[in-house]
Amino acid sequence: MKITAPISKPYEVPILAKNGAGEFYCGLVVDEWIKRYDISVWINRRSPLGANLRSFEELGEVTEKAGEFDCPVYLTLNSHYYTDEQASFVLDLAREASLLGVDSFIVGDPGFVRTLSNAGFEGRIIVSTIGSVLSSETARFYGELGARRIILPRQLSIAEVERITRLCPHLEFETFIYNDRCPFLESNCHTLHGLPNQDSFCHVDWIYDFIKDEAEAGESSESWAEHLKHYREWLWASSNCADSYTLTKVPNGTCGLCAIPRFLAAGVSSVKIVGREAPDYRKILCVQTVARVLDKALAGIDEADVKKAAIKLRNDEETCRRGYLCYYRDANPFVAGKARRRAVIEEKL
Amino acid sequence: MEELASIYTTQNHSLASSTQVLEETLLLIDRQRKNIPFEGIYYGNEFCERLLPRAGELETVLEETRKKDLSMVLLVPYLTDSGLERLSPLLDILSGSDCCEVVMNDWGVIRYTRRNFPRIVPVLGRLMSRMMKEVRIKGFLKPGKAPPGALSVLRDCGYSNSDYNELLADNGIGRVELDIPPQGLGVEPAYGVKMSVHIPFAYVCTGRSCMPGSLNLRPQQKFTPFTACRTECMRWTLRLRQRHRPPSAEEQILIQKGNTVYYLEELSLIEDVLTGYEGNGIDRVVVDTNLLS
Question: To bridge A58 with a disulfide, which of A53, B24, B183, B248 should be the other Cys (CB 3.0-4.6 Å)?
Fold first, then answer.
């Protein structure tokens, strides 16, 4: 199992590789794209400015440096969709990127998966979370279109991940491990991040008015007030607690460290760190954090002990007990038993 | 209509402006209804696996619609593997009936259905029509303001893409469903795909972690994709307002029901769809009353 790390500057590659990254992903936005479509149309799921490489020269530097560490580079082409004209533009970009040494393409639109396959890139396609693979059937669908690997959405339980990997042994799988959680499914979110002077839609501190009558609904407004406090806390955790750090310099990121042993057992190929736009300092600390836990799991240390090590590393047991930073709460040792019981009840229903 | 509007008028005074917009929308739909034949009902849910109907419920609805000489279309959300197992008996029932149209919002559901229930007619649901619906910048997205290259892309959702169209054809999809984005619709499928449009509410975002559905759970159990809920979505509908902004008629109407946030589509854009529905490739309008009931 490798660590897949985000890149937005060529100089980040050797630092992250030396700290444990085994694969890299990046975005590329060339001037011609912005000239044609403006910055309001994104070629991938990050703003054209800030999170992306800005030229083929930069991309070439990234692949060259990554090659020195024998690390593949993946290019994100994961817009929700491309029109015919855009698809032609992006295909040309993919061809150029391939010549520069890009290994595979991260794609969200099944139409473009087909485009790439038809253009000879079959087997070099990674399905983005935008592809919304929630079942083994969807994984097979993309496999038949020419995908090699599937990035599974953050809104799956460990048990659901295990089921998909078990039923699709012919495909590679990648799961999220650190930083950022979408409160909604990102494949089904149609808002823009990065609007000037505005929070992301999901992180706006909304006032909730009740359209339906409380008495009719049977719950009190007090319980709602308490519930919304929890929701805001969970949202805050979803956005990495304002990109903060613990006193021991561990990034406060949404986290799947406790799930690593089960991912390893399930044959997951790589674990992904989110945050192409993050400062290099944060990227390094994230890679170090994940690498320390992954190394223990790879060394064959018992699952419970790997989890203990992860919690100790995070150095904030109270937050871990709460579970709001977890991607996969059913892997959290403080929550797992109860979560599993509820999941079983739900399954029976 | 009286009943629908009254749901709003009994509420918080800040909803007064939304009542007016909604009433106008419903009046418009009512006027257009004279020209649009009412053909049937959409039954089910597009957004939540937990709301898949049981086989008995589906049979009852099928029977009722048959008695009223209406067609019935089943709505199916995105599904996990266990959701697909629960879908199977429903598709079995529909395969043996005259109502075989199923709206699917997941390529896995489409693959599963095509392989196991070939009589079912797949319709590509609106969750698969992935348009940008950032209502907070709708002013920027008007013709004359947004760059033309950007606007034509944002009014589409990939249905102009020939490879995507081939994918639809390969999967037997002859109908796609859409919301009306704030920037207006500019969708022209390359081959003879029919289009349905949902009015008057469009969805903005949805997910498996349900905020209202976690209301009655202990903190450690809240907001996960897998913990059971008490279908709070059936009892609570919330209006989202931006803090520090007084209620105004111009404020975008945003509503959350269960795991999904919706906005009220712009009246003039609904009118465009309704008045031009025979000429713009749209031959079905789905009026969503579920949010108001």
Answer: A53
